[in-house]
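Fold sample X.
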Amino acid sequence: MKGLYCQLSESAEDVKFVIQETEPPPAVSDHYVKVQIKACALSPLDTKLLADLKLQKDVVPVGREIAGVVLEVGPKVTFFQPDEEIVGILPLDAEVSGLCDVVLVHEHHLVPKPEKVSWVEAAGTIRDGVRSYTALHVLSHITAGNTVLVLDGASPFGTIAVQLAHHRGAKVLSTALCLEDRHHLEQLRPTVGFQESLVVRVINTSDGKADLVESCLEETGGLGVDIVIDAGVRLYSTDSESTSKKLLPHKHDIITLLAVGGHWVTTEENLQLDPPDSRSLFLKGATVSFLNDEVWNMSSAHQGKYLHIMKDVIEKLSSGIFRPQLDDPVPFYEATVSMEMVQKKQVRKRHVIQL
């Protein structure tokens, strides 16, 4: 049985992806489920997080967002039966790659997959759906009437976040990094009827002509944005920054455009706030939250909520509320090349390996 694995070097940044043989799964026990994999989505491997949690090894399994068919269940399993279709996310400490033909998974990491949802769609949507729920519901407590700014809304995660925010009755603004992204965002429509775009305003940041703060304040009558979900921020303004980094907003801009009582959900793990920044947030009564969707598996106290979120994500995918940004399915023999592109962030759509 073959799977996709990552070989780490001493630097932990220089990684190599390989397909190698692995041992077949052991006998099913207790709450474990044996699953035949039909599709597995690829996401960047966070080597620093693995090191922080003491999970770093010489060879790390790759591919965690899975969809497949239940082959066998353990004696204590209550959620599933053989031949049921499932979707889920393997835990960080999983010993096996999600691209193996058959894997053993604890039942608390899986939810049922409706028949009308394809394997590729299920595997390619589950993580971005969980991240969107975490950002909008758990961290920022979205309500109808909120104004939400989703930075880089044409990314796979941004697209799902835009759709969820609109579904909850929010007014959605977004940024586009190129004309193709702008066209994609302007073409997003609800699944029912010929209504206006899900995004009320697309701010094109690729040419440097649009002012993010000015555009957001203009759209909100000077009140500011209730919720901001970033895709990374610039901590400093230097000429040495890469082109991709220069497309990101400065942290001061995000603080400036936040409304009173606003929520800033950031993906920037190394965020540094200077005293003037903290003072501005204090005066607004605003909050800063860090988006780390791996926290759900770090405490068993939240397992029920985590399963509920995953189930709701799949239900919204089935009803057409979620329409993910997916590339064409990739065959298994191209998995290493695809994963290298995903790790280097050279792709704009979600890559899914179809087995």
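Fold sample Y, listed below.
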Amino acid sequence: MMANTPVSNCLLPMKLITLIVIGFFLTILNAQSAVGEKGSQRLRPILFRRRVKRATDCTNGFIAKDMTSNTLLPALYPTEQLDACLNNSVLLANLTELGHIAFSRNQLLVLKRKLGEIFTSGLPEERIRQLGFIITVYGPEEISMWNITSADTLALVLNNSPNLNTSKVIIGNYLQRSGQLNAVALDAIGGPLLCTLSEENLRTILPSELKKARPMNIFTCTQAKKDILFGIAKVAFQDLAGDPKAYFNQLKPYIGGARASDLQRLAPGNISMDFQTFSSLNPVEVEKLTAQNVRDLLGINLNSLKENENHEIVRRWVNTHSVAEVMSLGIGLTGGISPAGLGNLSILPLPGSASVNSYSLLLSICVAVLGITLQCLS
């Protein structure tokens, strides 16, 4: 028989070790099958504890209070290091400062998660005011659960709202919690967002608060909402009614809700309304104005009607007034309703040096006489 060699002597221990290793992993696989995914989650920390620990170690130094205003913090502490090196206590004590730093979205998500660990029942309102840029990583559903009751909180949150839909949710949250549309809230909301509120909400605005608020652009509001806001503005600035120019300047942002009677009262005040403001008026109410009303309203800007004769509001006024009244403005506007039986008139300019105003007046008289004559003959 051949004598045993050193190699053959090692075969038995090696086979034994191999069987032990295979048996160990088979045991693990059987354990995972028995307890399911939940059980496997318990085993992973055991198997990979050393690797995970190394990934979450703070190697850049823990963030102290005097570092929380450093605008270079996002570069100094990448997402993993920010998570590892920022203690919850430091975050809470310096939330305002950290909320004003331009972290990346992933870094902001770290701050959001840490706040969730601190406030398990939801963020208190005083903390919501401190969030700053962190607001941008909260979704509309999360924001709808906040408790926003102060106009100051509303202003701070809206200032960092990432988009229109989120802003609407923020305002809705405030109003649902009996938040008042006072001057602070109105300034925070502004005109375009104000136009998204319901008519019922708009009616709650007190004239005294509208008066204190900054002027708002309500161009995108429906006509019904413009009417409501103008009605509030009239009351808010009624103490200036004795000074037509000052009164008009305060009403101008809301003038789209003015009725014909309001415009007729403003007309004699030498306000010289510019065409942009005129074009924002309610066309239905403008149609009720006489040529003299229009002349008085626009004053030195009357020629702007001719310059914008194809604008809808100009055409609507022309098409609802007689040719004589249109021509009486003396600015070269043509069109209007012809006297019965005359059909549409095409007006040609007279030769010579006669002024436009004199010609317009003469033409108006002729048209009026012809109209009366035809009515008598019929």
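Sample Y note: The radius of gyration is 38 Å.
Also: The chain has a mean pLDDT of 83.
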